[in-house]
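Lab channel / #folding
Pinned by the channel admin:
"Please post every new chain as: sequence first, then the C-alpha cells as a reply. Keep commentary short and put observations after the output so the thread stays searchable."

First post following the new format, from NK:
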Amino acid sequence: MGIIIEKRFLNVPEVARYLGFSTSAIRKWVRLGLIPFCKVNGGIRFDIERINKWTEKKIDNSHIFN
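Reply from TO:
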C-alpha cells in the first residue's frame, strides 16, 4: 500500500519517504539541481504536485536516481 500525502509541501524526510530514497540522496539531488524544490523560511520544501510531475517525466530515465 502506498503512502497517502495530505499536505501540499513536504520537507526532506517526507519527500525521501514518499519517493523511497534516503534523505542524503534527496539533499544531494537538491544540491545538484536534479529535483524541483523551493525555499520556505530558509528550509527546503517540495511541492507534491511538482514532485509527482517530475517523477512521471523521470520514469523513462531511471538513471537519474543513481
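NK: The radius of gyration is 11 Å.
TO: also worth noting, Strands lie at 9-10, 38-40, 43-47.
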